[in-house]
Design brief:
seven-stranded parallel β-sheet, globular, alpha/beta, Rossmann fold, 18 helices, 47% helix
């Protein structure tokens, strides 16, 4: 079947625009500290070798969350495919820096090539993947069609598109069919998305509900030296963590902390905003609340009433200091953040009520006693106080979180087996 006109138009346009996009992307990576050689991975120039005679499985997730969500899956597939090499590509400097610390065995990272003929041809000629697994919403038409044409089997996992994206694809049925027919398997996060993918003209017999991979990501790394230093500074003080908070949520957290200080005067709060570049703004909020503070980017350690953890990649260390974690992105209609990482750490999970991105996960956790939802500062303070004041309540919540974590890990094996079969990879 001939390629739709829109697809051919995009190919032609990308050829004209690639010099401008390339210049912009290389400049951004250079500013982030990457060498020009690595930045040119965006143009399809590989900086790592492909192992000869070993099957190569390529994973692609553009964002930080998408990239990190598949690490546990790569690890599990690596156990099933002991001779395979794994490649993970992403689009941003932040994702590359975080992945560098957490790559599974036999896995290398590269920046994803631009969706244009030249970069993709160079990329595919070097890597020649046997299978390619795309994550969430990454539907770059040329990347998908050219990878399929190379002979690789393709899967889409954790499929999740915004309503706006769904409407856009639905209006272009010929292009949508042309793109989605390349997948041997499409695993969605929930039943609603499975129906949406079929409405977008994905082959119905290849669409199935999977699991939310972000709810079973690999354990967060812990820096033992930093952890030792923090514990020495804190002594026996109780600690709670508020992580991944967004604008407008820190005030609620700080109000709750001031309430808690009346009954727990030595209580310490570790506040980790979702976007560390907001550090100065959040520091001003803490000072405005008349709370003493220390700040990670100044080289401080926890010890005052509030510790501002305005860095990336250190949440695992802060979670190791506490039994109680509040997850932000949930007091406002943002959609919530991944509670599985908290459950893996063994802490009780608190969250606001706006958790549409993880609705099924939170429903299961609430039913199991592993998570509690809060509405405002008073409610947050009340639930943190209940966990801090009653060891039996806290122990039950933590045990439920650990059980949930283990149950999700067990489900990961079935997803790995399903992908190996659908992509015709030989154990």
């Amino acid at each position: 079947m001939a390629a739709p006109l829109l697809y051919r138009a995009w190919v032609g346009t990308s050829m004209l625009l690639v010099p401008f996009f390339a210049r912009s992307e290389v400049r951004k990576l250079r500013r982030a500290g990457f060498t020009v050689v690595r930045a040119h991975e965006k143009l399809g120039h590989a900086t790592e070798p492909r192992k000869p005679n070993a099957p190569l499985v390529w994973f692609h997730g553009a964002s930080v969350g998408e990239s990190l969500s598949v690490l546990a899956l790569i690890t599990r597939m690596g156990e099933v495919l002991p001779d395979a090499q794994f490649l993970i590509t992403s689009g941003t400097a932040t994702s590359a820096n975080l992945l560098a610390r957490r790559l599974p065995p036999r896995t290398v990272h590269q920046f994803a090539p631009l969706d244009a003929p030249g970069p993709l041809k160079r990329f595919l000629k070097h890597w020649h993947p046997d299978a390619a697994i795309f994550v969430e919403s990454e539907l770059w038409p040329q990347m998908l069609r050219r990878t399929h044409a190379s002979g690789a089997k393709l899967a889409l996992v954790n499929a999740r598109l915004s309503e706006r994206s769904q409407a856009g694809w639905a209006k272009r049925p010929a292009l949508s069919r042309h793109v989605l027919e390349v997948f041997s398997l499409i695993l969605t996060q929930n039943d609603a998305m499975a129906k949406s993918m079929i409405a977008m003209h994905a082959p119905p017999d290849r669409v199935a509900r999977g699991i939310n991979l972000k709810s079973m990501s690999a354990p967060l790394p812990v820096d033992e030296d930093t952890l030792f230093e923090a514990r020495a500074s804190l002594g026996h003080r109780p600690v709670w963590v508020a992580s991944s908070t967004h604008e407008g949520e820190e005030k609620t957290v700080l109000d709750a902390h001031k309430i808690l200080l009346t009954s727990h005067p030595d209580l310490h709060l570790i506040l980790a905003p979702r976007h560390p570049e907001r550090g100065q703004e959040v520091m001003n909020l803490i000072a405005g609340a008349s709370l003493s503070l220390t700040r990670r980017t100044r080289g401080d350690v926890p010890g005052a009433e509030v510790f501002l953890a305005d860095t990336m990649g250190e949440l695992g260390t802060w979670y190791a200091l506490t039994d109680v974690v509040f997850l932000g992105g949930s007091l406002r209609p943002i959609g919530g953040h991944n509670p599985f990482e908290v459950a893996q750490s063994g802490a009780a999970v608190l969250s606001g009520t706006h958790v549409t991105n993880f609705a099924e996960t939170y429903a299961e956790m609430e039913a199991a006693g592993a998570a509690r939802l809060v509405a405002d500062a008073e409610d947050l303070a009340e639930k943190v106080d209940a966990l801090l004041s009653d060891k039996n309540t806290r122990d039950k919540a933590q045990a439920a979180a650990r059980r949930f974590s283990q149950d999700q890990s067990d489900r990961l094996g079935s997803i790995a087996d399903r992908l190996v079969a659908a992509l015709e990879l030989k154990p």
